[in-house]
Design brief:
330 residues, mainly beta, four-stranded antiparallel beta sheet, 28 strands, globular
Length: 330
């Protein structure tokens, strides 16, 4: 057990405090936070995509103080009359800091003016985008995970799009729930699937290999350490509490399942300084690993968690129905 969780311990000196009041100024309380994306050049800059109940309710809000306050973009209007759900947001480090917004059933939208206006990308081949990641070393590289076409990429800043190895994806995994990039090499991409485990490409999606079989559990989220060696994958059985966390210490070549994972229906995973794991669930809120034990953060008083974003000693938590929570670790 010590070999598996040793790098995520030593949390006993931390003190957790909570603040949500500031995040409610712009109407996020009671809202479904579907996605949160951060700026690659400014860690304090966040974008939240909301899910509405009908068409013309897919709005995006921006924070410049790591989630303390939020302001609506596009004059508070939906990015399209046909959008109800912003499922994914990513910001590129290109010349215009292009913002990509992936929707449910309404395709891909882009903004090149900091979110003031949005335009649908008619060349994007899928209407359902689950995850978007922009290049770390290459600012013109963009990957998107879709529910029917696997992983799609662009090497020219979203001007054109290519399906990544369709002959492999069609027979292996068409439903890519989310994607993550190796922090030191954005040609290395991991695809987390709905029921086919984790797949890895080391050549920008030209070839793929399954590196983790999650035995039918959905891979909801993944976190890669800054040195690219440690990887954590959060999984759960869709519609059930059955959960597992898989950990690799060698860039995805070998995996071990962490013991004593809370059976809470995992939805999110993140970490702080390679020492502390934080997990969110579909049904039971947020937990943190402390002294070999998982402790529920009771002050996050909403059960369904959609996003967990960390930066140094701060955590932003998106909920599926009660806006944004902020956690400060002293």
């Amino acid at each position: 057990m010590k070999n598996i969780v040793g790098i995520i311990l030593f949390f006993f000196l931390y003190k957790i405090s909570f603040s949500q009041s500031d995040s409610l100024k712009y109407g996020l309380k009671g809202k479904i936070i579907r996605s949160i994306g951060g700026s690659p050049t400014n860690s304090s800059e966040l974008y939240a995509g909301l899910k509405g109940k009908k068409l013309n309710t897919g709005t995006i809000h921006k924070s410049t103080d790591f989630g303390k306050t939020w302001k609506p973009l596009n004059n508070g209007s939906s990015i399209s009359p046909y959008t109800s759900d912003i499922q994914a947001i990513a910001v590129a480090s290109d010349l215009t800091n292009t913002i990509y917004a992936g929707t449910w059933k309404d395709g891909l939208y882009k903004s090149k003016d900091q979110g003031k206006t949005w335009k649908r990308d008619v060349n994007f081949p899928s209407s359902d985008i689950r995850s978007i990641k922009t290049g770390i070393q290459n600012p013109l590289l963009v990957y998107a995970a879709t529910s029917s076409f696997g992983v799609i990429k662009s090497i020219d800043g979203g001007s054109t799009w290519i399906r990544c190895t369709p002959e492999v994806i069609n027979t292996s995994f068409q439903f890519a729930w989310s994607i993550e990039l190796d922090t030191k090499n954005d040609r290395i991409v991991y695809a987390q699937t709905y029921s086919k485990g984790v797949w890895k490409s080391i050549d920008q999606g030209n070839t793929w290999k399954q590196v983790l079989d999650t035995k039918g559990k959905t891979c909801w989220d993944m976190k890669i350490s800054e040195d690219s060696k440690n990887i954590w994958v959060a999984t759960s059985k869709s519609g059930a509490n059955l959960s597992a966390i898989y950990h690799s210490k060698d860039g995805g070549n070998n995996w071990k399942e962490l013991p004593n994972t809370p059976q809470i229906g995992l939805s999110q995973i993140n970490m702080i300084d390679n020492k502390t794991l934080i997990i969110g669930s579909w049904k039971q809120g947020v937990f943190i690993l402390k002294n070999d034990k998982w402790i529920k953060i009771d002050s996050v008083d909403f059960d369904t968690i959609s996003e967990i974003i960390t930066d140094k000693n701060q955590i932003v938590i998106g909920s599926w129905g009660n806006g944004i929570y902020r956690v400060a670790i002293d």
